[in-house]
Amino acid sequence: MSRTPLAVVAFIFAATTAVAETVAFEVPYEGRTIKIEGEFKKPPGSNGPFPVVIGLHACDGRTNYSTNFWLATLASQGYATYLPDSFGPRGYVDVCALTSLVTTAERAQDALVAAATLAARPDIRADKIAILGVSHGASGALRISRDDPSLALLRQKLADAGGKIVAVVSVYGSCVPDVKRPVVTPLLILVGSNDDWTLPKPCQEFANEGANPKLVQLHVYPGAMHSFDNASIFTPRLVYGHRVAFDAEATDDARSRVIQFLRPLMQ
Per-residue pLDDT for 163 more than 50? Predict the structure, then answer.
């Protein structure tokens, strides 16, 4: 590794003058309506409007280190950020032991309703919304990137609010090749070659199927494992039977790729 974890840790937890605001929206769940709350932040010193990145957290919830690292990274680039809690209102704190407790469809629903909610704000550029998901959240982000008929009504509600998702980023999310649901939104996929929780091969197949190569960028990091961007993992370890480890070199490259990928799409 060419860089030390300390540099990344310092970056993540650098002081910021951005003020957090709680933004809520409602979604149907098991025959009732639940309210999902999230932390919204916008860059200091201006009223905007700002392009916004919606983060979809990993299986351990909204305190997930990597998710917050990415939102801090993008806040430093002048984006507003929003991190909804998809688990608490559904009665969960952590679903890592059984990820199906909160489904990919529910994560995608949360992101699209959140996008419509933010699109109605005067301090947000409704036509410049990006979704960034990590691990469990990235699977929902990948679903949003596709022409999925099950999301058509939610997409229409977003369009009715003047909103548009212009970019999706998946950080080691599960890929399910399906030529019948092509990618329709520019998509960046980042995964480690030694990831045994989210296997890279399906992502390679996904990126190469049908017309997807026109919109999909995929980078596989040699030797990197799951959670390669989590600088709190000082030594490799097993989590629910899967190997996880921080990789400073992969993280540094991934950070550059995400910034460069979003810049032209969010301007």
Answer: yes
